[in-house]
Amino acid sequence: MSELDRDVRRELENAVRRARRLAEDGARKALKQLAVHHHEPWATSTPEQRSLRNRLRAHARQLGDRRDEKRGTQAIDRLTTECAYEHWHRMLFARFLAETDLLIEPATGVAISLEECRELARAQGQDWLDLASGFAERMLPQIFRKGDPILEVALPLETRSELEDLLRALPRHVFLAHDSLGWVYQFWQADRKDEVNRAGTKIGANELSAVTQLFTEDYMVLFLLHNTLGAWWAGRVLAARPEIATTAKTEDELRAACVVGDIDWTYLRFVREANGPWRPAAGTFDGWPRAAKHVTVLDPCMGSGHFLVFALRIFTALRAAEEDLPPKAAIEAVLRENLFGLEIDPRCTQIAAFNLALAAWRLAGYQPLPPLQLACSGLSISAHEQDWLALAGQHARLRGGMARLYRLFEQAPTLGSLINPRALDGDLLVAEFRDLQPLLDQALAHESANETTYELAVMARGVAQAAEILTSQFTLVTTNVPYLGRGKQDDVLKDYCERIHPEAKTDLATCFVERCLGFCPSGGSIALVTPQNWLFLASHRKLREGMLNKNQFEMVVRLGAQAFQTPMWDFNVAFVTVSRRRSEKAHRFAGLDVAELATPAEKKEGLRGKQLAAVSQSVQLRNPGTKVMLDNTDPSALLGSHASSFQGIKTGDDERVRRGFWEIPQIMKRWRFFQSTVEQTKHYGGLESLLDWLDDGSGLARRQGLGAWGRRGVMVSQMGQLPVALFLGDAFDSNASPIIPRRGPDLAAVWALCSSANYSLEVRKVDQSLKPTNTSLVQVPFDLDHWQRVAAEKYPNGLPKPHSDDPTQWLFDGHPRGAEQPLQVAVARLLGYRWPRQTGSSFPDCPALGPDGLESHADPDGIVCLSPVHGEQPAAARIRALLNAAF
Asked: What is the DSSP letter of 733?
């Protein structure tokens, strides 16, 4: 299965982004020509155009475009977007089918090329796209809906021509690579994503799908599936052939023994303890069914169907082996019984369906497919409730089911797969999907009677299918969750998360972690790509405690930043596999850390070869803050057992209350020395500032860390490589945190640890956020005896006394000898400048100097100059003499 290389991917991105702009411009023109936006049809409209206009207006209202009841005008923004999408993707899908020899001419059952399709269309007097989409409709009824009014809109000829040129210019490899469709949708949303991010608005229904769209890397998908489905299969193989588990020398030998069909389990990891037998690192998932035909997989945020496409190949091999099925029969069975998907965006749902169908045909050739178990969980019910219920007629039970659907899906465009019928109501649907289906089919059969009813019935059928999946449970739930912090969410999303997911509400991602577990029965499992922060941040402590107490962790992998080819350089992600069952006290889960590797390619190799850790789950509950740490360090052996860390002052207005110490002529009681960060580790630094402590700092935003004042410690700068300096006991800001030993004599040992190259690495194992919290700084291993020996060897006479050669620090003694900037210091001394540690607190005004009457001034670049008071140029010798005297 080939992937797009970077250059071809960039070419595809440029084409898709250009196509969206062209298609939307052309779609808006075409819709206006049909007077869809106008209060009445144009006088010149034909009966066919009037009928199409009515159907388009009804469809637009289902999409969420509003009609002005007084004026009769109709918004067409959503309709325009939908129309542009459908027309471009119809062309795109046609070429995908043609380039893979899957565009089937129904009369002959033979695959034809695009050129042959164009020739056939000319012979029949048809448009080639209409002809190709007609073929595709028969092949993919779930994707190209029969009777869809949008596909009957004719884009302007110039738009069509430009879109065809874009399509024709794309290299053939685009349509042969298996990951192209995933990139296509991300590129389609790229301009919209940029627009939303620039606007800075709260994210709701109109913005969510664009902002959270992110193509999941192949290696991520494969690693999660290989260490769930593959681990389950390997457990069965090793149980049947236990000698392999004892005699195998390497993981590669075990992978080879577990090969099934063409699935070689590239990323499947194994571990062994001491000289015991090998076992799958993630466990054997004993709570799952014993036969593959009973194992179900759901991707609730399926995007372009990436997880499901890879799972299709795996299940096809498993079921062919277990049930002796030929490939086509195995594929049909897998699509019908094993694979399920939900997606908030109906357009992305369509791509996922096409992607899955295309993957099935690539595996075994064209065949009619069963209905795919994929649904859009974000369908908007824009109708009034009475119109919606009218679909059920007078059937009380069916009306109950329709009413329930209406309540569940009122906010579906914002909530999508977060919708949990069990959590919201506790009961299943009053009328199940199989009861509603005949009713909805009946409504669809009366298209000519009422366009609004027909469009409403189409929507209802999709909603009912989504509801059926939302109320079901699955053996494995696997996805790349959407990432969106609480501060960026609109009120609908924020309020729902607070009500239904109170312990996970901080981020949409963590709400989905809980929701995915809710899809699992007892013994079922989740395997997710998630942010790392919920594994360690204090705001997620209750979520971690609940999950560790109620569920069994199987594997945690830290990927760190730069794991995606899409630029997300400061975004740390992880793989988390958890089963819905209580773990035994002795249970250990697999831990793997590839965060320090710099690129996706390096991380990919690290996942296969780096050594795994066996991590005690019960120990995690005893970790400070219940942080999930990928080692088994006893909490009593951490730095936090010997020292405390503190948060610094948040001023709320630095420009008002913070000064360079040289700016204040005389330091009075209201001014306090204010320590801050350093750019690199040094004994003393960050000593440039004073803090206005008027009225004991009552005007400051947050007075924090006062417990550290007057005590010596180590100041850790909380960014980058966490450089450190010694802490003098003064006030300090919130960008640095002092670590104060509980015993004064331990300061040298604490300094030896914190100033070592290993300290930053150990902190990052605990806290991978851009700015680690102050509590994370002391949750690192600390062998007091070892670091005392290191300190005694390095500092036999004790730590250096407070001193600095840097004149920007208030520790500087004011003498130019040894200073970092001796000339500037000498001039400053000549001008009468004094440093506070030398003179107490006096900063006298700068007098005129010497018999030559020199005075100082600053040039436009801020450089201090000496010049004669009376305009006479002093002799160079005199200047040199003054400077020499200072030295």
From this structure: B
Q: Average pLDDT of each block of 10 consecutive residues along the chain (887 residues)? A: 85 95 96 94 93 91 86 92 92 89 88 88 84 78 77 92 93 91 90 88 87 88 98 96 93 96 95 89 96 97 94 97 96 96 91 92 90 88 77 74 79 90 58 61 54 66 84 95 92 92 94 96 97 90 94 95 72 93 94 90 93 92 86 78 92 88 76 92 92 89 90 92 93 94 93 93 82 88 92 93 86 67 60 51 36 44 44 47 53
pLDDT at 853: 43
Instruction: Read off the tokens for 357.
Output: 């169908």
**C-beta separation of 174 from 180 below 8 A:** yes
The CA-CA-CA angle for residues 523, 529, 530, to 5°, reads 100
Distance CA 812, CA 805 (A): 6
Number of C-beta neighbours around residue 659 at 10 A: 17
Calpha distance 647→735 (Å, rounded): 8
452 neighbors 388 (Cβ within 8 angstroms):
no
In whole angstroms, what is the distance from residue 92 CA to residue 184 CA? 10
Q: What is the rounded CA–CA span in Å between residue 716 and residue 618?
A: 30
pLDDT of residue 455: 63
- Cα separations (Å) of 387 from 149, 397, 401, 554, 685? 21, 17, 14, 49, 71
Q: What is the DSSP letter of 844?
A: P
Contact (Cβ atoms closer than 8 angstroms) between residue 381 and residue 406:
yes
3-state SS, residue 872: coil
SS3 860: coil
Residues 424 and 395 sit within 8 Å (Cβ to Cβ): no
pLDDT of 848 reads: 34
**Residue 696 — left, alpha, or beta (φ > 0 → left; ψ -120 to 50 → alpha)?**
left
Q: Could you give the C-alpha distances from 788 to 544, 635, 638, 792, in angstroms and in order?
A: 35, 20, 15, 6
Q: What is the model's pLDDT at position 860?
A: 45
**CA pair distance 92, 111, nearest whole angstrom:** 17
CA dist 508 and 531 (Å) reads 10
The two beta strands, 724-727 and 689-692, are unpaired
Helix, strand, coil fractions of the chain, as percent rounded to 5: 50, 15, 40
Q: Are the beta carbons of 522 and 582 closer than 8 angstroms? A: no
The stretches of 34-63 forming alpha helices (DSSP H) are 47-63
pLDDT recorded at residue 871: 42
The whole-model pTM stands at: 0.80
- Name the helix (H) or strand (E) containing 84: helix 77-99
Write out the two tokens for 20.
Answer: 């969206």
Residue keyed to tokens 């090969």? 259
Please count the residues of the chain.
Answer: 887
Backbone phi, psi, residue 832, to 5°: 90, 15
Token code pair at residue 249: 């020398």
Q: What gap in Å lies between CA 56 and CA 68, rounded to an integer?
A: 16
Gap between the Cα atoms of 645 and 641, Å rounded:
11
The answer to whether residues 693 and 673 touch, using CB atoms and an 8 Å cutoff, is no
For 492-538, give the secondary structure using H, E and C: HHHHHHHHHCCCCCCEHHHHHHHHHHHCCCCCCEEEEEEECHHHCCH
Q: What are phi and psi of 270, to 5 degrees?
A: -125, 155
Report CA 54 to chain centroid distance, whole Å: 41
CA gap 772, 536 in Å, rounded: 10
Angle of helix 6-33 relative to helix 180-188, nearest 10 degrees, comes to 50
Work out whether the CA dihedral 14, 15, 17, 18 comes out positive or negative: positive
In contact, 227 and 577? CB cutoff 8 Å: yes
Tokens standing for residue 614:
């066996």
CB-based contacts of 375, cutoff 8 Å, min separation 6: 341, 342, 349, 462, 465, 466, 468, 469
